[in-house]
Amino acid sequence: MKKVLLLIIALICLAASAAETDSSKPARIALTTAASNLPVIYLEAKEQIVSERKVPCAVRMVLPKGMEQGSAAALKGVVRIHGASSQGYPKTSFGLSLDMPVRWLEMRERSHWVLNAAFVDRSLMRHKLSYDLFRSFSVTNAPRFASASRFIEVNFNGKYHGVYLLMERVDRAMFDLRRYESNALHHACIYKAVDHAANFDSFGHDGYEQREPDPLTGDYWGPLDRFNRFVSSAKDVEFFDPAKGIATRLDLDNTIDFHLLVLLTSNMDGFDKNLLIGRDAPLTNAPPPRFFFAPWDYDATFGRNWEASAVGTRAWLSNHLFDRLLGDADYRKKFSARWQQLREKQFSVENIHRMIDGNTHTVGDAAKRNELRWRTLDGPYPDRLSFEQDIAQMKDWVSTRVKWLDDEIERRTRNKAKSR
Fold it and tell me: pLDDT digits over 107-160, tens only?
């Protein structure tokens, strides 16, 4: 069904583009990054960019006036279309792999980057808002890993291509995991849930992709298979055993934070899909490493679904693992206490509105240029929203959502019986 909807969206966009009249040309000519308020990436590729393979490219970044000027020299690398369902959209995301690492916009020095198109997100900020929230939970010795990101504009092969989010790629380096050693028996691992089979309710690894170690080095499914077998089949007495149970296999504090982020944002596509679960390599004479979660793909959040349809404020999102954990009284107590703690600061309506306002100010006039460049987006959308209208709806949605969650989390965590 999702593939059919994507095909319909693509056909509508093509039809709308073909129907443009000559009167639209002046607006197109006006689209220029010459005086951009954002950093601009100039991307050049002589071959057609596709998802199946990487093609050579040249990339350079130019900073706006007022920002410290770094090198604007062209960097060589390769590029491909990034993402799965988003490949059907006219404004595509790109994955960049540069020949040498670069430190862009005060983020970590790295060779691999993502240019996220945020095609279905009129606000352009749902990814950034969600990741920044999760990163803000970090404390000493308890990091919360999520992609750092910055708003930029992209000029592709000499033509204005819109506002993008420059993002760190999620990989071993981001999680500070140990390097792959070919002669080792055990390795650090990262798995991405790519469909709804990743619900932790069955044996094996259906619904997942291996991200670390690199699949080209060979399959490495043992850690995830053992974890899924335990979660799906262990009896409660074994599951909650403090010496050998789930707390020795999974970072429960991280899990609570991750689940609360899913709930706060109402990520309809992120509790049994589009999540990342990772674990470091084990060391001799050391406690076994525990799995942890990291967020990915958060455009279906803050009142919108993956195809931009409106989402209400009363959805409870969970999976088999989270349900099992909430069946334990001690875990429910910790879950409730952490929600109350976050509501005082990171999850306060005032803080989230402040973050939205900050992103709105940063994007600035670039939002109008992006709307002009992709004005045919009006066709496939379930409703027609401007950048400003989406921002206003997000703020109203957040205010209502957190009030509902206050009551719902209190109800679910005070009951002795597991509630679904």
Answer: 999 999 999 999 889 999 999 999 999 999 999 999 999 999 999 999 999 999
What SS3 state is found at 35? coil
Q: Return d(Cα 83, Cα 66) in angstroms, integer.
A: 33
Max CA-CA distance within the chain?
72
Q: What is the pLDDT of residues 334-374, one digit of tens each?
A: 999 999 999 999 999 999 999 999 999 999 999 999 999 98
Q: Is residue 272 part of a domain?
A: yes
Pairing of strands 93-102, 75-82: antiparallel
Beta bridge partners of 60: 42
Residue 403 within any structural domain of the chain:
yes
Confidence of residue 67 (pLDDT cuts 50, 70, 90): confident
Which residues form the domain of 345?
177-414
Tell me the HSE value of 166 on the side-chain side, using a 13 A CA sphere: 26
Q: What value does the CA radius of gyration of the chain take, rounded to a whole number of Å?
A: 22
Residue 229 is encoded by which pair of tokens?
């077998």
CATH of the domain at 273: 1.10.1070
Please report the beta strands in 204-362, taking only residues with DSSP state E, as ranges in sequence order: 208-212, 275-279, 292-295
What 8-state DSSP symbol labels residue 377?
A: G
Is residue 37 included in any domain, yes or no?
A: no
| Distance from C-alpha of 305 to C-alpha of 364, rounded to nearest angstrom | 25
Cβ–Cβ < 8 Å for 119, 87: no
Q: Which two tokens stand for residue 14?
A: 């093509």
Torsional sign, CA 217, 223, 225, 226: positive
Helix or strand run (H / E) with residue 324: helix 320-325
